[in-house]
Amino acid sequence: MVLDKYTIIEAERSRVFYNWFQCFSPDDVEREFKDCGFAIERYYSDVAGTPFSSHNREFAVVAKKIADTEQAIRWTAYSHR
To answer: What is the pTM (predicted TM-score) of this model?
Structure first.
């Protein structure tokens, strides 16, 4: 887990925002998707379709629902190595 915290200070008030991110490796993503009925078709280094490199901290996947092979989704995950 990674916390991304922002504090916004204005004249009348202060606000704090917490963004929690869960990090996945490609193997973790494949397991999660499989458990939800999806199959990974391809890995990319980004959502623009750059060929996958395990040296990148960020990656994207194309997956299809196993029961419905016409439905593809894109999802970005972060991997900390």
So the answer is: 0.59
